[in-house]
Write a structure and sequence with these properties.
This protein has about 475 residues and is of the alpha/beta class. The chain is built from 15 helices and 19 strands. It has two domains: about 5-145, Rossmann fold; about 170-465, L-fucose Isomerase, Chain A, domain 2.
Amino acid sequence: MATIKLGFAPTRRSIFSAPDALKYAGLTKERLRELNVEFVDIDDINEEGLLYDDADLPKIVKKFREAGVDGLFLPHCNFGTEYVCARLAKTLNLPVLLWGPRDERPDENGIRLRDSQCGLFATGKVLRRFRVPFTYLTNCRLTDPEFENGIRNFLAVCNVVKVFRHTRILQIGPRPFDFWSTMCNEGELLEKFNIQLSPVPIPELTAEMKKAKEEGADVAEVINYCRSSMCIQIKDEELENVAALKVAMKRLAEKYGCNAIAIQCWNALQGEIGIMPCAANSLLNEEGIPVVCETDIHGAITAVMAEAAGMDEARTFFADWTVRHPDNENGELLQHCGPWPISVAKEKPTIGYPLAFDHPGAVEAEAKQGDMTLCRFDGDNGEYSLLLGHAKGVDGPYTKGTYVWVEVENLKRLENKIVCGPYIHHCVGIHKDVVPVLYEACKYIGVTPDLYDPIEEEVKSAIYNPVNK
């Protein structure tokens, strides 16, 4: 599971109770520790360990940056000092979580100690003036389920933003000529999002495969894993090539500092190495290194976002939208030659031959059904968005490759979204509801969320009032 570190900056305002603010800062820290949340406090910045004085900002910024925090948590332990919160958030340029503990009943003299909710309203306004995006967790008690669920959602949002802003993709070979749909603007991805590509030619890959075979040990380990985890229907020398390709791709990803891979996969690659790369892709996907087909850079970006939204607890699968279900009006086949991770499979996968190619090395298995998120990052003409929504696995006819039949609320509406763009026939799935997290993360990375079902209020509620999450 991914580890995210929060900058913990509880805030107060002078005209409200300082002792009560101190009390709730301490209680909030205790609750974060109970939830095993890693955080960096500001106890050493001033005597109270609270955010209220402009003069403390340089020291807080320095401490948080040196600690490498991934998000900023601003508990309003009384009303709070909204302009100091905004200045800190603007400087750090990280995801921001606003929350305040629910206020108690006024005492017998009508005195209120904190007015935390009122302060949240003020801070939200000032953050908007500063053009600082932020996440809001409903005004609740520390013991309420909304608090725990909201914190966990925010950690996942921080993880998406962190991974997205530090993504580097190993591009193995150019896109196949026929796939104009997978072309991307490398310079624009770098300029807009700091997403980097590390292109390597196919001869560099084959040289790394040869080296892996000569060394032997890593390749042998992968072969043993395949024999224990899959049904093998290819020759020994072909399985050795699958293992060598897996080892080579992982080594190149490490060499170039990449967290995802997009591989050409056909047709030149097959002629060079004698296999399809699908099974090797599957093995790397199972290890949490997303590998996508047909040099689909946008598909690789989608995969790292979805895995990050799931806090690396579930593996993603890269699929084609292919054909409509023969019997279910809202059913669709998600399928690909065989790159899906083993843990997605409903039964023991087989390494065999693909549907449309002569070379071996594809994986065959039907995926587990159940609830899932489907998504696609894409763009054209300088505008980028993230298509996302829910689906559930359903029964359907057998087909070759890795596949699952899914049902959505309204397939015709989804079809319109994909055809009219900026999307293509590729998507990423994950057996986890990460729609709210991805939707919220979009505000921090400059991407427009595009829900294919009219569930925006439901999705917002899952972030801001996540009682049933």
